[in-house]
Design goal:
By secondary structure, the protein is of the alpha/beta class. The chain has 17 helices and 19 strands. The protein has three domains: 125 residues, NAD(P)-binding Rossmann-like Domain (Rossmann fold, 3-Layer(aba) Sandwich), CATH 3.40.50.720; 167 residues, Dihydrodipicolinate Reductase, domain 2 (2-Layer Sandwich); 96 residues, ACT domain (Alpha-Beta Plaits), CATH 3.30.70. Strands 7, 8, 9, 10, 11, 12, 15, 16, 17 and 19 form a ten-stranded mixed beta sheet that branches. Strand 4, helix 4 and strand 5 form a beta-alpha-beta unit. The relative contact order is 0.12.
Length: 451
C-alpha cells in the first residue's frame, strides 16, 4: 500500500481539524489503496495545549525546514500570514512537492510566483479551502465548468461581516457594538480590519477571478469597501424597503471589460443571497450556456475548512490534480481591461438625515429634476433622528457621486447623504413585478411605490 507522508505548517484551529479528519478517515484511505500519514508539523509555540494527539509526529518551529525536508511527499499550509508561508510553499513547489493551502492572503498576493514555481516543477497546488471553505467552487470551475464562458461570479464570502450585519439588523446594534460582540466570540481575525474593511473578501475574489476568467487581478487592484460605514439607520431603512445589507464580492464582464469589486450592497429579500446568514457563504456564477448556478455552504469553521483541505489532499493522493493551479487552462486570450466602478451604472440606495417627513417630496422632486428617478422610498424616525431612504433607477456612479454634495444643499437635509449600491441593476423590474402582484398598479406614481 502506498503511503503519502504529509508535512503540515500550522496546527491551530484548522490544522487540528485536519489532524482529526486524517485519523477519522484512515480506513477510507486504506480501502482505496493508499494511506495518508502526518509525519511533521511546524508550530509557533511548542508547549501550547492542543486538542489533538500528535504522538509519533515530529513537531518543530521551522516551517521552511518542513517544506524542504526530503521525507515528505505533500505539504499542507494552514499557518496563515504571508511572507513565511509563501516562502515555505514556494520551496516545496519548486522541488516538485504538491502543496495544499488554505492561506488566501499568501496565495492572492503571490499568485504569479506560485504559478511560476508550479509550472517549473510540475507540482500541483490545491487551494479550495482558501476561497470559501467547504463550498467546492474551485473544483466546479476547474472541472464541471472548465469550457464554459463565465460572465459573472459574485457572492457572500466573509462570514464575519455577515455575522456583524445580521446582528445589526436583528438587535439594532451599531457597527461598533456588533463588531465588539463578534470579537468577543472569536469570530474576527486577530486584526479585525481584514474582515470589516473587505480585505479578506478581496483576497478570495482574486482567486475566484483567476479560475473563472483566467486573469490575475491582485487584491490591491480590486475596488474594495468595507462595512464600517453601514449604520443602524441603513439597516432600518433597508428593512422598510424589503432589502437586507450584505458584503458582496463580485466580478463581471461589462462591455468587454472586467469589473472587480467588494462593497456593501442592498439585496432584495426575494434573492437567494439575502438568506445567507452567519458563517454561511454563497457564490453565484452566470454564463450564457448555463445561465445561473448557485453554490452555498459553510464558509468558515474548523471542520468545513479542514474538510476542504483534506479533499484536495485526497485528490492528489488518487493521482489527480484536483482543484489546483493552474488547473484546466483555456486558450490564450487578450486580458480583459478593467472597468473602474465609478464608470458603471447601478441602482442605488440613498440614506439622508432630514429635518422631518415634510421634506420627503421635495427631495424626490429635486432628484427627478436631475434625471434620477426614485423607485422606492421609506421614512423612519428614531432616537438618532429622522431618516429618508430612497432607491433610485439606474444611474452612472460618477454622476451620483457628484449629486451627493448638491443634495446636501436641499432645504431640510441635515448632512451629506450616503449611498449603497444595489446588487442588481434591474431593480425596476423587481419592483414592477411586486407592485402589480400586490397592488395592481403601475410604477408610474409620483413618488414611487413603497416596497
Amino acid at each position: 500500500m502506498r503511503t503519502i507522508r504529509i508535512g503540515m505548517l500550522g496546527c491551530g484551529v484548522v490544522g487540528q481539524g485536519v489532524v482529526k479528519l486524517l485519523k477519522k478517515h484512515q480506513p477510507d484511505f486504506q480501502r482505496n489503496g493508499f494511506d495518508l500519514k502526518l509525519t511533521q508539523v511546524a508550530v509557533k509555540h511548542l508547549g501550547k495545549h492542543r486538542e489533538v494527539d500528535l504522538h509519533g509526529v515530529r513537531v518543530c518551529q521551522d516551517p521552511l525546514a518542513v517544506a524542504k525536508d526530503p521525507d515528505i511527499d505533500l505539504l499542507v499550509e494552514v499557518m496563515g500570514g504571508r511572507e513565511v508561508a509563501m516562502e515555505a510553499g514556494l520551496a516545496a513547489l519548486s522541488r516538485g512537492i504538491p502543496v495544499v493551502s488554505a492561506n488566501k492572503a499568501a496565495l492572492a498576493r503571490g499568485l504569479s510566483r506560485y504559478l511560476e514555481a508550479a509550472a517549473g516543477s510540475g507540482a500541483a497546488l490545491g487551494f479550495e479551502a482558501a476561497c470559501a471553505a467547504h463550498i467546492p467552487i474551485i473544483e466546479a470551475l476547474d472541472r464541471s465548468l472548465a469550457c464554459e464562458e463565465i460572465t459573472l461570479v459574485k457572492g457572500v464570502v466573509n462570514g464575519t461581516t455577515n455575522y456583524i450585519l445580521t446582528l445589526m439588523e436583528r438587535t439594532g446594534f451599531s457597527f461598533a457594538e456588533a463588531l465588539a460582540d463578534a470579537t468577543a466570540k472569536g469570530f474576527t481575525e486577530a486584526d479585525p480590519s481584514l474582515d470589516v474593511d473587505g480585505i479578506d473578501a478581496a483576497e478570495k475574489l482574486t482567486l475566484l477571478v483567476f479560475k473563472a476568467f483566467g486573469q490575475y487581478v491582485p487584491p490591491e487592484q480590486i475596488h474594495t469597501e468595507g462595512i464600517s460605514r453601514v449604520t443602524r439607520a441603513d439597516m432600518l431603512l433597508s428593512q422598510a424597503l424589503n432589502h437586507r445589507v450584505k458584503l458582496i464580492a463580485g466580478a463581471r464582464v461589462v462591455d468587454g471589460k472586467l469589473n472587480c469589486s467588494v462593497h456593501p450592497a442592498l439585496i432584495h429579500r426575494g434573492e437567494l443571497l439575502a438568506d445567507v446568514d452567519s458563517e454561511f457563504n454563497a457564490i453565484i456564477l452566470e454564463g450564457p450556456a448555463f445561465k445561473e448556478l448557485t453554490f452555498m455552504g459553510k464558509g468558515a469553521g474548523q471542520l468545513p475548512t479542514a474538510s476542504a483541505v483534506l479533499n484536495d489532499i485526497v485528490k492528489f493522493a488518487r493521482g489527480g490534480r484536483g482543484a489546483a493551479l493552474p488547473g484546466f487552462v483555456k486558450a490564450p486570450a487578450a486580458p480583459l481591461a478593467q472597468a473602474p466602478t465609478k464608470h458603471l451604472a447601478y441602482c442605488y440606495f440613498l440614506r439622508l438625515k432630514i429635518l422631518s417627513s415634510g421634506i420627503v417630496d421635495g427631495v424626490v422632486s429635486f432628484l427627478e429634476t436631475q434625471n434620477v428617478k426614485v423607485l422606492s422610498k421609506a421614512y423612519i424616525s428614531d432616537g438618532e433622528g429622522d431618516y429618508l431612504g430612497l432607491i433610485t433607477d439606474v444611474v452612472k456612479e460618477s454622476r451620483l457621486s457628484h449629486l451627493m454634495a448638491t443634495l446636501r444643499r436641499v432645504d431640510g437635509v441635515l448632512e451629506e447623504p450616503a449611498f449603497i449600491r444595489l446588487d442588481k441593476d434591474n431593480y425596476r423590474d423587481i419592483v414592477e413585478h411586486e407592485q402589480r402582484a400586490y397592488f395592481g398598479a403601475s410604477l408610474e406614481r409620483q413618488s414611487g411605490p413603497r416596497v
